[in-house]
Amino acid sequence: MPKRILQGVVVSDKNDKTVVVRVERRFAHPLMKKTVRRTKRYQAHDENNQFKVGDMVRIIECAPVSRNKRWAVVTDQAAAEA
């Protein structure tokens, strides 16, 4: 099964080697048929602390790095390989 890749915006980079990424998904409300936006925050591993608040990043599923981190930020080189 392929690993999921999500795209979002970095909202926090205060932790060492960790960024918090806000991922937004849109869907049609089942009854009202209006487009609804829902966001979720993911903690992702950033080995070199290279991403800052406001950066658009892609994250990929990975093995657990810590208690809350199950995602890693995809660099441009890794995205080209995937």
From TrEMBL:
Keywords in alphabetical order: Ribonucleoprotein, Ribosomal protein, RNA-binding, rRNA-binding
Annotated SUPFAM superfamilies: Nucleic acid-binding proteins
Keyword Secreted: no
Example GO biological process: translation
Single GO MF annotation: rRNA binding
InterPro entries on file: NA-bd_OB-fold (IPR012340), Ribosomal_uS17 (IPR000266), Ribosomal_uS17_bact/chlr (IPR019984)
One GO CC term, this protein: cytosolic small ribosomal subunit
Family membership: Belongs to the universal ribosomal protein uS17 family.
Description of how the protein assembles with itself and partners: Part of the 30S ribosomal subunit.
Functional note: One of the primary rRNA binding proteins, it binds specifically to the 5'-end of 16S ribosomal RNA.
NCBIfam families given in the database record: PRK05610.1, uS17_bact
Protein name: Small ribosomal subunit protein uS17
Lineage: Bacteria, Pseudomonadati, Pseudomonadota, Alphaproteobacteria, Hyphomicrobiales
